[in-house]
DNA sequence: CCCTGATTCGC
DNA sequence: GCGAATCAGG
């Protein structure tokens, strides 16, 4: 493949959008991310401070180049990086169990304690995230999850990829927090065990009702 | 390990 | 000009 005007244009557009070199390469096809990066440099549209250049150079403010507005527009770019704590919209056959939807509303713990006062937040003991109220999950799945969480790789946000389980464990408000990180089921954001509690057939949920 | 971009250098 | 290999880093 060669760099036709059209391909170069796509490259420029995607790079401007903050797409990673590998993503661009995948899109264009016929080239590697190295090729893309090489081209980006030859085109002179690299720059984008904050990255590698951080190493040896405090030459920063000399001619003081005009700040790039879009720089802020691309905070964390790679898709895999997106925390995506909450499962994305799913087909139809199955849907994330509300109770298991992490970031979502932490099912009001009716048994926690009065807490009538607004001032009182939430004890910092038990996590708000997953903790799918036990009564919503089958004992087997629960046991499985607990077992798995002992083996969790305890990954940090940045270590998550498309292939790691993104199930949050612990209390985000403390250091006692990490992501499962075990190999995720193809196409799903969680590992086998967590998929089990996160995705439940509607029928199963109905049956468990009451 | 996974993934980033940056650089080098033979072609 | 091109891009694989390599480097440096999260």
Instruction: Domain count, please report it.
Output: 2
* Major β-sheet profile: 2 strands, antiparallel
**Any idea what the shape is?**
elongated
Report low-confidence residues grouped into runs of 5 or more: 49-120
Mean pLDDT, rounded to whole units? 63
Helix content: 25-40%
Region (Disordered): 44-110
Biased composition (Low complexity): 70-109
InterPro entries: GcrA (IPR011681)
Pfam families: GcrA (PF07750)
Q: Which properties best describe this structure?
A:
two-stranded antiparallel ribbon; DNA-binding; 210 residues; 2 domains
Describe the structure.
The chain is mainly alpha-helical and 210 residues long. It folds into two domains: 58 residues; 118 residues, no CATH class. 29% of the residues lie in helices and 6% in strands. It contains seven helices and four strands. The strands form two sheets. It has a two-stranded antiparallel sheet. A hairpin with a 6-residue loop joins strand 2 and strand 3. The longest helix has 13 residues. It is elongated, with a radius of gyration of 23 Å. The termini are far apart. About 34% of the residues have low confidence. The structure holds a DNA duplex (11 and 10 nucleotides).
């Amino acid at each position: 493949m060669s760099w036709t005007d059209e391909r170069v244009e796509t490259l420029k557009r995607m790079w401007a959008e903050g797409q990673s070199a590998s993503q661009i390469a995948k899109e264009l096809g016929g080239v590697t991310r190295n090729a893309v990066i090489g081209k980006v440099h030859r085109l002179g549209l690299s720059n984008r401070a904050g990255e590698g250049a951080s190493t040896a150079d405090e030459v920063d403010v000399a001619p003081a180049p005009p700040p790039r507005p879009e720089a802020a527009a691309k905070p964390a770019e790679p898709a895999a990086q997106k925390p995506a704590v909450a499962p994305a919209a799913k087909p139809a056959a199955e849907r994330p169990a509300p109770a298991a939807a992490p970031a979502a509303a932490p099912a009001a713990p009716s048994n926690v304690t009065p807490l009538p006062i607004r001032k009182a937040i939430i004890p910092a003991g038990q996590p708000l995230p997953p903790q799918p109220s036990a009564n919503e999950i089958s004992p087997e799945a629960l046991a499985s999850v607990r077992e798995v969480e002992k083996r969790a790789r305890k990954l940090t946000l940045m270590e998550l990829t498309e292939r790691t389980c993104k199930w949050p464990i612990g209390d985000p408000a403390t250091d006692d927090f990490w992501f499962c990180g075990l190999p995720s089921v193809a196409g799903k954001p969680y590992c086998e065990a967590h998929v089990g509690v996160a995705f439940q057939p509607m029928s199963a949920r109905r049956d468990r009702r009451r």
